[in-house]
Specification:
Helices cover 20% and strands 35% of the residues. By secondary structure, the protein is an alpha+beta fold. It has a five-stranded antiparallel sheet, with helices on one face. A four-stranded antiparallel sheet has the order 8-9-10-11, with helices on one face. The radius of gyration is 19 Å and the shape is elongated.
Length: 160
């Protein structure tokens, strides 16, 4: 199953003047997605956050397909230490392709390259197609059904 892992991150960022340096928070969140699932995202946090223990602010993350989600960032203290959890922002096509290729090899005993579309929203019940290509050029359509909003899927090869 492909699932967007929720990671609780804690770090310290600079306090510039009277405001928290949310630009650093944006970079740390971007790094979290890159490290956790090799997903390239854009993050936008408000620029006028005052340091205050136990207060929260919201950053918007945009996934590779343009889907957006909000991340709540909690200030641990008034020194710039913050925590947040990564949230799913669309399916990670590279992770899905690797999963289907691995499971195809396990189930069918054949090695295939899998190509899935980008920009697929993580929505329970969503159905879409990927293509599996064998080394000899033969292809098969893969029907993927999302099990939940977190990116867990089931798939099946569809014969033409």
């Amino acid at each position: 199953m492909v699932a967007a892992a929720l990671v609780l991150a804690g770090c310290s960022v600079s306090i510039g003047g009277n405001d928290l340096d949310t630009g650093e928070v944006e970079e740390l969140i971007i790094d979290g997605y890159q490290t956790d699932g090799n997903v390239v995202v854009e993050v936008a946090c408000p620029g006028d956050v005052e340091p205050e223990a136990d207060s929260t602010f919201t950053c918007e993350v945009t996934g590779p397909g343009g889907d957006t989600a909000d991340i709540e960032v909690r200030q641990v203290d008034d020194e710039g230490n913050v925590r947040w959890a990564l949230v799913p922002v669309g399916l990670n096509p590279a992770a899905l392709e690797a999963q289907v290729a691995r499971e195809f090899r396990e189930q069918e005993g054949a090695t295939v390259d899998v190509d899935c579309p980008t920009g697929v929203a993580a929505e329970e019940g969503n159905v879409f197609s990927c293509r599996a290509t064998a080394p000899n050029g033969d292809t098969v359509q893969i029907e993927v059904t999302q099990q939940d909003d977190s990116g867990n899927v089931r798939w099946r090869a569809v014969t033409p």
